[in-house]
Amino acid sequence: MSLGQHLVELRRRLMFAAIALVVGMVVAFLITDPIIHWITGPIRQITEERGDNFAALNFTAVTSAFDMRMRIAFTIGLFLSAPVWLWQIWAFIMPGLTRKEIRYTVGFVAAAVPLFFAGCYVGVLVVPHVIELMWGFTPEGGVNFYNAPDYYDFVFKLMIVIGISFVLPVFLVALNMAGIMSGRAILKGWRVAIIIATAFAALATPAADVVSMLMLAGILVVLFFAAAGLSMLFDRRKAKRAAQILPPEASA
């Protein structure tokens, strides 16, 4: 294909992806009420504990409520339309890949996507505890009026960060398959990995909730060792294939 044909194909793929995103946003906009009800759950719990109305979601502008719904709709719509726009990206780059690269890419996506959503789900479980912990630092007589856009950004970004942390082991395996890091090199960093996983879990969970911290840290450590084990297995297969290809004189 010529450069012009590639641009036409790219435009067509982007158009399909944009249409899917718009449809996903429309569907997501219809369910923003239960989503807002969920993310404001910790606020309601705080007001019940204090027995007053000194904690609330605050909309400081005329369009703040609508803007928040649109941002939620965009985020959820992006996830709902993911199968379509991911396929459009894949269909655009697939003709230029070899069979081996296609196989690796499919394996990477098949492992990364479920891990990312699993991390987001863990973030869903962690977010209320973090908000309650931060509320605990409010001095006596203080008022917690949470600015709606900032509150939403905090909840969304925390979920995304935890989701991405679950995908990092897949990147380690990808680096190994690309020949950048060996499985032994990855495994040698297990002490650093445990420290980082523990520190991240401690920051992402309340200090008093030791069970949640240990659970999150344990999941990250298990994923790290799984990535190291897979990388060492791949290295062993590569060594066997290299030994089969080399002639006996060369291997000797």
From TrEMBL:
Membrane topology recorded in Swiss-Prot or TrEMBL: Multi-pass membrane protein
Location(s), subcellular: Cell membrane; Membrane
Any single Gene Ontology cellular-component annotation: TAT protein transport complex
Main location, first listed in the record: membrane
Keyword presence, Transmembrane helix: yes
Subunit and interaction comment: The Tat system comprises two distinct complexes: a TatABC complex, containing multiple copies of TatA, TatB and TatC subunits, and a separate TatA complex, containing only TatA subunits. Substrates initially bind to the TatABC complex, which probably triggers association of the separate TatA complex to form the active translocon.
Biological function: Part of the twin-arginine translocation (Tat) system that transports large folded proteins containing a characteristic twin-arginine motif in their signal peptide across membranes. Together with TatB, TatC is part of a receptor directly interacting with Tat signal peptides.
UniProt-recorded name of the protein: Sec-independent protein translocase protein TatC
Gene source species: Microbacterium allomyrinae
Gene label: tatC
